[in-house]
C-alpha cells in the first residue's frame, strides 16, 4: 500500500501524505516513499514545482513512535526538500505536530488553513525538537521558538504566520495558492533553481555543520528513561510520571 499519493497539473506535481491510520506520522516507510517521490520529481524536467499536502485532518502527527524512521533518513528527507532545485510548497489544512513542523519548515512556501493547528510536543515526552531545529530555527521567530519549544503549547494558523512558520494563513487555502502557483509556472526552471539556491544556502550549511551532532543528541534522548516514560504515557493516553 502506497503512503504517498501523486498527481500533476500544468507542471505542478502534488505529493499527498496518505497514511490516515497513523495521522500521516513519520514512519520509516512514509519517509522512504516521500524521499523517492521527491527524487523522481527532481529528475523530471516537466515538473516546475512540488506541492506537499495531506489527506484527513492531520498534515503530519510527528514521528511514528511504533515504527520511527532512522534519524539520518529523516534528516536526509528534510535536507532533500531544502536542496531540491524546484520549489516545494506546503498546503496545510489540518494539524501539525512535533517532527511534522520540521517537515513543514523545510518547504519554501507554506499556506495554512483556519482548521490548522501546530505544536512542538517533544518536551512533554522527555525529548527535544533536536533535528527539526535544522529547518525550524532559521525560519521561526526566536522569541516564539523559546516559548513553543519549552511549553509544547498549541497555536493556530494566524500565529504560525506571525512567527514565520508558514508564509500565509488563509480562509481558503486553494484560493490563496492560485497566485503562488501561477507565479511558479511563469518562472523559468533555471531562475527558480538559482533563486532557491540563494535563500537556502545558509540552511544547507547548518545541515552540514550541525546535523551529525543533533542526530546523536536525538538518539540519546530517545534512549533515555524519561523519554521511555513519556512515550509510554502518550501511547497509554495518561500523564507521564513527572506531571505536577
UniProtKB/TrEMBL annotation:
<dbReference type="GO" id="GO:0003824">
    <property type="term" value="F:catalytic activity"/>
</dbReference>
<dbReference type="InterPro" id="IPR014748">
    <property type="entry name" value="Enoyl-CoA_hydra_C"/>
</dbReference>
<dbReference type="InterPro" id="IPR051683">
    <property type="entry name" value="Enoyl-CoA_Hydratase/Isomerase"/>
</dbReference>
<dbReference type="InterPro" id="IPR029045">
    <property type="entry name" value="ClpP/crotonase-like_dom_sf"/>
</dbReference>
<dbReference type="InterPro" id="IPR001753">
    <property type="entry name" value="Enoyl-CoA_hydra/iso"/>
</dbReference>
<dbReference type="Pfam" id="PF00378">
    <property type="entry name" value="ECH_1"/>
</dbReference>
<comment type="similarity">
    <text>Belongs to the enoyl-CoA hydratase/isomerase family.</text>
</comment>
<protein>
    <submittedName>
        <fullName>Enoyl-CoA hydratase family protein</fullName>
    </submittedName>
</protein>
Amino acid at each position: 500500500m502506497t503512503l504517498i499519493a501523486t498527481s500533476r497539473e500544468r507542471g505542478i506535481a502534488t505529493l499527498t501524505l496518505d497514511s490516515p491510520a497513523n495521522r500521516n506520522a513519520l514512519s520509516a516507510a512514509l519517509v522512504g516513499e516521500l524521499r523517492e517521490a521527491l527524487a523522481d520529481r527532481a529528475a523530471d524536467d516537466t515538473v516546475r514545482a512540488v506541492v506537499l499536502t495531506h489527506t484527513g485532518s492531520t498534515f503530519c502527527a510527528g514521528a511514528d513512535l511504533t515504527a520511527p524512521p532512522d534519524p539520518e533518513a529523516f534528516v536526509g528527507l528534510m535536507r532533500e526538500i531544502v536542496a531540491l532545485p524546484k520549489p516545494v510548497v506546503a498546503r496545510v489544512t489540518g494539524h501539525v505536530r512535533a517532527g511534522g513542523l520540521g517537515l513543514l519548515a523545510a518547504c519554501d512556501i507554506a499556506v495554512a488553513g483556519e482548521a490548522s493547528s501546530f505544536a512542538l510536543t517533544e518536551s512533554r515526552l522527555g525529548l527535544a525538537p533536536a533535528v527539526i531545529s535544522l529547518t525550524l530555527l532559521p525560519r521561526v521567530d526566536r522569541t516564539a521558538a523559546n516559548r513553543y519549544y519549552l511549553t509544547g503549547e498549541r497555536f493556530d494558523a494566524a500565529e504560525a504566520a506571525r512567527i514565520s512558520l508558514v508564509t500565509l494563513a488563509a480562509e481558503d487555502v486553494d484560493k490563496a495558492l492560485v497566485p503562488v502557483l501561477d507565479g511558479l509556472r511563469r518562472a523559468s526552471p533555471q531562475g527558480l533553481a538559482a533563486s532557491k539556491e540563494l535563500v537556502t544556502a545558509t540552511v544547507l550549511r547548518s545541515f552540514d555543520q550541525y546535523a551529525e551532532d543533533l542526530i546523536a543528541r536525538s538518539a540519546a534522548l530517545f534512549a533515555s528513561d524519561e523519554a521511555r516514560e513519556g512515550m509510554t504515557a502518550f501511547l497509554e493516553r495518561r500523564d507521564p510520571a513527572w506531571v505536577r
